[in-house]
Design a protein that fits this description.
Length: 805
Amino acid sequence: MEQLSNSSFKFFSLGGSNEVGRSCHILQFKGKTIMLDAGVHPAYEGLSSLPFYDEFDLSTIDVLLISHFHVDHAASLPYVMQKTNFQGRVFMTHPTKAIYRWLLRDFVRVTSIGASSSGKDENLYSDEDLAESFDRIETVDFHSTVEVNGIKFTAFHAGHVLGAAMYQLEIAGIRILFTGDYSREVDRHLNSAEVPPLPSDVLIVESTFGTATHEPRASRERKLTQLIHNTVIKGGRVLLPVFALGRAQEIMLILDEYWSNHSDDLGGGQVPIYYASNLARKCMNVFQTYVNMMNDDIRRKFRDSQTNPFIFKNISYLKNLEEFQDFGPSVMLASPGMLQSGLSRDILEKWCPEGKNLVLITGYSIEGTMAKFLMLEPESIPSINNPESTIPRRCQVDEISFAAHVDFQENLEFIEQISANNIILVHGESNPMGRLKSALLSNFGSLKGTENEVRVFNPRNCVEVILEFKGIKIAKAVGNIVDEIQREEIIAANNNKDGSRVEKKEDDVEIKAEQSTNKDMTNTVNNAIDLKPVKKNEIKEENRELQNGNEEEIIVSGILVSDEKNFDLNFVSLTDLREHHTELSTTVLRERQKVHVDCKKELIYWHLCQMFGDVGVLLDEDNVTNMVKQENGNRNHTESEDQNGKLVLQVMNDIKLTVVDSTAALEWSQGLITDAVADSIVAILMSVDSAPASVKMSSHSCGGHHCHHPEHTPDEVLQRNSVWKVKQISNLFKEQFGDSFTLLLEKGDDHDMKDEDIYGVITIGKNSARINFSQMKIEECNSNPLKGRVVRILDMGADLAASLC
Ligand SMILES: [Zn+2]
Ligand SMILES: [Zn+2]
């Protein structure tokens, strides 16, 4: 594979490009790799139904996002997770995961029947594979941003089926929107797809219907119900092959209402409607669970009647065909939608020889499937249970689309709102996709040759699209600098009533920044901070220029902090640097502090050893430290009366304490941890003379005059040490979260009453986290970003604790 330059973005499809089925796309940018969807092609069986997984090293994938539960988007996921070297993390929305479980179980069952009847053993995976991989799938909430290893992504409603998501990804400031399958129509149960609030640089969009135009919804509903009505009234049977979930519920909402309103014309309940699916009942509950993700209509129905709107008055469920009594006219919704095998295929073979029957296709028919073949009105169809014979086809075949995919006009309007300069078409057969490409290019023709030129790609599977992104850096302003920018904006807006176009969220501002160095600023900063190149982080001083629509500039000074691993480029004021960038602790600011001490040097050394364990001795002119070391085993040392020499100690690698005469000088590099440790050393130095342990030490060195003073037991020392550690770690949290953080001392439920656990609680708006400091772990947290922050601080705290043990 071609070597990518640092600014190259690569798109690559393993399936679902110039075809509908086996959707699977790869994105690569700045060393990150993302996979979008892992489907199968419903027209093929076994391994040949998979995306071209051999064409890519799946072990390099960081994140795999599943857009929705349809088999052409999700059904090879267990294969990827269990049968390949894929090691990444997998995400889908909650309803998708809830339905995916049942659907794929059914998929395993149906395909294994199909495979055994064709004499092949080509099952892609087993029930066990499905179960094992299921637990490793993570869920995302709509509208909340998840970050994995520098890749940020947010799910938005796609309006296609329950739980269907669009994902907007952000890597190193470049935003990519993947629509998955999407619909802009408000139907009977779902809202239309959302337009994400932030713009995108690359749009990966479905092109299923190409340049076709949907008939208005109302006339499609009318046609559907009339066609069915006319067929059953003449004694015919109607087969509606449907995908088990999603559109099936939509069709049932239409039919149930029609049957209720036309009961008399239809013989007062004499014409039954059946929904034949193994999953029907199980999934009713899932649909009810997620009513809150559906549109107002359905929610109102649910609220008013307090009954599940997906339990229908006029529709009965059939688990299999054994319980089906086929005596007269009826309407049968049956899965699978493509008629490849299973219940719908069995009914098709039974009903298709009779001319008064009707097969009504309401979904999108994938190339190469029986559903697509039927539309050609063939003389006969092959029998699946008896491959030697064919079955004559005399039944009517019709198509009225309720497939929840955009038509041309809807797609174009959405594409214009996203206003991405790069559009990659997927999920469409070559011809409609090609027509869509031409239509888009002519629509955006006036932008050709300008910097806003729109490029449209319709690559084949395994053909790369490479895009170059150069020179744009997006920095996020955080902390106090946001106020400063807003103040400047108001001034600018007052000067110029058109205002400025700087995008603003509640507490952070997005700015497009150009690199330019201001010498004065550099000097000022260098006075305060000794900048050193550090491993992961880099500090640059920049003078930011915010451009508004009228070429007016707002000038704000601050520091750009870039994190090369996560691509975060934050713009902060100097005073906020520590608060927002604790990882910059390697930045060296030497601090010094002098303290007057009025006690013997061995006492200082002894106390520090008690607190920090391993204290290094850099210089000990009076040999006091050896005396302390031998003190327990051998008390017959000779005390040096004359202590004028220098003692230089080292605590935690980086803190140097020099004691000479009655002055202790402390020197350390600035950092959250080292600052905290230095503080505590100062506290020890100041209190050393009054601490009871000092007396103990003194008692040994002065011949046992004070031997009745209480001594600290090892347990007490240990406890004091661990309390001290918790205090230091909680200080880290205080620094990060301020008043949002509180420390609690509680008796644990199942602990011995002597054991008290120390908890920290962080509450920021609706988000909260509860941390058990005694066990150094997070116990509850309802927000992933917050959790990430807490875990980072705990890690840092664990390092601190480890270095003190
Ligand atoms: Zn779909
Ligand atoms: Zn699809």
